[in-house]
Amino acid sequence: QDAEIVRTRDPQLLARCDVVVDVGGEYDPERHRYDHHQRSFTESMRSLRPDKPWSTKLSSAGLVYCHFGSQILAGLLGQPEDGPVVTALYDKLYENFVEEIDAMDNGIAPAPGEPRYALSTTLSARVGHLNPRWNDPDQDTEVG
């Protein structure tokens, strides 16, 4: 609630953060580091939670959801974290929302072969449009 959000790739600044997501090249939930940008990273929902069926490689969003989704949903709903309502909603949200983010962020095609049409309105694409272009002289991500 009182968190300060810092956007940086500076390792010295990242070392001082309580939680680091999608940067830093490290997945270590004990230290709250949730990045998937390592060659050795292969985690999926199934590998981290064997009771779940999904084998799509997790993105940083998926890692955060995997570790905190049930807790957040339980708090929002006022339901027990291991209860049937939270469990059903957790599974549906992953299957119908977060898994797409994981797949898109990891470059996993929705089907084998050449796509028949472009997927240009995915959540990942919409978020990407908020970032500065690679050749934009002003790379300040805080300017809107």
From TrEMBL:
Name of the protein described by the UniProt record: MYG1 protein
Record-linked InterPro entries: MYG1_exonuclease (IPR003226)
UniProt record similarity statement: Belongs to the MYG1 family.
Any one GO cellular component localisation term in the record: nucleus
Phylogenetic lineage: Eukaryota, Metazoa, Chordata, Craniata, Vertebrata
